[in-house]
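worker-03 picked up job from queue 'complexes'. Input manifest follows; two sequence lines, order preserved.
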Amino acid sequence: MTETGGAKLSRGERAARRARQRRSRARSPFFRLPQEQPRSLLPPLEFLDPEQVEAIHQASMTILEEVGLDFLDDEALDILARAGAKVDREARHAWLDRGLVMEAVSQAPSAFTWHARNPARSLVIGGDALAFAPNGGTVFVQDLDRGRRPGVLDDYATLVKLTQMCNLLHTAGEQLVVPHDVPVPLRHLERLRLAVTLSDKALMEAAHGRVIPQDALAVARLVFGGELPQDGPVIGGVINVNSPLRYDSRMLGGLISYARAGQVTIITPFILAGVMGPVTMAGALAQQNAEALAGIALAQLVRPGAPVIYGGFTTNADLRSGAPAFGTPEGAWAAIVGGQMARRYGLPYRGSGTLNSSKLPDAQAAYETAWSIWPSVLAHTHFVLHAVGWLEAGLTVSLEKFLMDAENLAMFHRFLQGFPVDQESLALASIQAVGPGGHHLGTPHTQARYATAFYQPFLSDRQPFESWQEAGGLDAPRRANRLWKTLLAQYEPPPLDSGLEEALEAFIARRRQELAGADLYG
Amino acid sequence: MTETGGAKLSRGERAARRARQRRSRARSPFFRLPQEQPRSLLPPLEFLDPEQVEAIHQASMTILEEVGLDFLDDEALDILARAGAKVDREARHAWLDRGLVMEAVSQAPSAFTWHARNPARSLVIGGDALAFAPNGGTVFVQDLDRGRRPGVLDDYATLVKLTQMCNLLHTAGEQLVVPHDVPVPLRHLERLRLAVTLSDKALMEAAHGRVIPQDALAVARLVFGGELPQDGPVIGGVINVNSPLRYDSRMLGGLISYARAGQVTIITPFILAGVMGPVTMAGALAQQNAEALAGIALAQLVRPGAPVIYGGFTTNADLRSGAPAFGTPEGAWAAIVGGQMARRYGLPYRGSGTLNSSKLPDAQAAYETAWSIWPSVLAHTHFVLHAVGWLEAGLTVSLEKFLMDAENLAMFHRFLQGFPVDQESLALASIQAVGPGGHHLGTPHTQARYATAFYQPFLSDRQPFESWQEAGGLDAPRRANRLWKTLLAQYEPPPLDSGLEEALEAFIARRRQELAGADLYG
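worker-03 finished. Artifact:
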């Protein structure tokens, strides 16, 4: 877990190594990826007309009022009852009047700033900005050298490092992989330690139960000097609905804990149409909308104005097996319409970037990922989770795919910038000077724009066949395999105040003692 | 080159084989892909505002008037001079007044029907329809068994067969691969023979010079019973501009020949920004527009109302090497804006589907292809050429990638259909009946829609890791490798009138004699 091995090197050796690293970085376009968030000036891609959006809205209101949802948590039922919802305490069920829901939802901000410990890494959620976050919730990790294996803490550290180094990723990640070598009740402590010490990007931590958020908020207070900022959240997590129409106590504990502290809840129904929702996408989306709005309303009842993100994760099941199907036309519809629904309520929207069912970083992984990221970006998804690394329906994160996906995020950043149309760029004088049959490679107009005219890939290969073959004939995953090793060798942790580091370690040491053998959700 | 080997089998054996094939087809979703063209109800994705479109239009008018183009063909110069263009015969150069160009362009139809020899395969170009055509112009072919090699006639036949079998492809293809084992002056005859005998889809043949189109038109007349239909074209080809600003005699011969016969010319500048056009995309697109409109105007001067397609193929060069860069953000801009320009003139639009620089059917091939097909489909490209198979900047066609790309075309077909939003599909009764925590897999609402609710892939794998591993752990290319072999084993040629077949063979035999050793472009 030591990051630099610097103690074993002399001062001169360290300086030489840093100089080598600087030279190497100067060579790789990966290190020149833009730090600022992408901003989209395109109108969001829409699939439904306003009447259809309204029909889904009305259907979801009927679901909230007439079907209701299970809320398997007494505090949640108390809050809903106090707000005027009809609650059946024995059945742990509540029916939410549309007036109650829409009034509460209207309290949610349409945009907010999510502070990172490095202010330059703070990010905007909402408006014309997009944010990309790495994979989350994966159980296995794979790479070409070691194959597929259950994740361990060292893998977690690797993923935080790669996330920190990739400018296109805007949070330090949440549950990047399960650290199987850490006892269950201590895992969140290790995740928080690595997120704070190896990254200076915006924090995320599982919104599970009440203990983990309490520890996450305690760490956040340490990071931000004792108190949480008043002008925006510093940490957030995903709240998954147990679709259909059920919030369990683990998720409600997390929702209430983060919302009460003014932190980010990303309220995300998990619907496989045909299994956890109707087989028809209109019905699945009406259910998604009802479930998301119920959670968002609850967050606003806990603390009006709490930052929330409307999450969509609806796709279809493969009906022959019941398995989830990712990167599908139906999932693309849902991603786009989810954005339309979120906009109807003036809420920031969360989607996903790299959903796919492939078992390895092959062409299927790449084209299904395209069926996930293209709709998400064009739908103007404010917060794109799982934007790198996913494989195998989210069970596995691939180190090679992590970088392949990052290349695509960088391409989208470029794409969304668009290009100028003006006298300079229309280049009539240059077209005239070159004339028919000439070429533009050496013109002053080209030379002046040589370095920045086009997106320069860090992974894609454009060599002629023979040169590519002479260079080893490596496919994209094998090139990515080389690159992540190069990157990890060049990783340097961001500056960390030594007082903070000590306080963090002391906190974690104390909590490790207190939580050993505990049931976090008891 | 025999297709069935049927002569060696008894009648009973043939019947048994056909029964096996029918059973096998019933199993593979590939054979159930929709035959009708995809239709897009989405508004086209646009990148520029109307003022920017107008600025590009105005710049291109200035190019046509003040810079002009080379036309390296006397007949073309005659036609332009007669129409009032200023022509320098010695320099083989013409300046085209905007009035002349726009008047001519306005004669072009905005939509037309392209007849196939099987009327059920005739296709609409324009309106809300999209058409997909296979790869063209490739030199090498590759598959996992035999690697990369120069194409031969047998490869050509393989590609026509796969094209014929894939319902998502709407033409029989043009120059699918170079048949190196056929002498140069006879290649078009063999291409035409295979296109007519192995496929019943719309014909394409190289618009190169005057001899090839003359033979192609002769074959088309045989296919259509002696005369070409008057209500729409039956054959077409791509006219590439030698950008910047030059039409060579080979392309002009093809353009004039097809246009005079009322057949389809797909007028496509080939611009690598920074090499064959300005490094700025606005300038490259202004040049593309000037070049495309010049050729379209010429086609209309040859025959007012001749069916034309406005072609865009602009992408960026990799400025470090001068190599073309495909599947790039800049190429995506150009694909989208090309559609905007074509719409400004009421012209059908041609783009490309699978442009990429990868040397093998890996993840790079797939994600760069996504950067080609996603913009093309969303820009509402009426004619998507190279919609399957491309690799290596168009030098190679991959049999495995052919099917991977076909899977994506089928997904787009589904995606563009959208989904209903009505009382049935909103499924409130079913949501109520299932209730919280239940599941929808066995409900009557799901069962009634089981078979058709979702796109069913023929290549993508959604099995759990263990099942996938037990089944051989094949990546997408290896599964595609199995599939194209299965398909080829099941290929049956479409019915062909024996009189037509004899006439075709007689024509080809005669022309083989006449053209042996000829210079087609002399």
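worker-03 released lock.
Residues 1-7 of chain A have pLDDT under 50 and may be disordered.
The longest strand of chain A covers residues 235-241.
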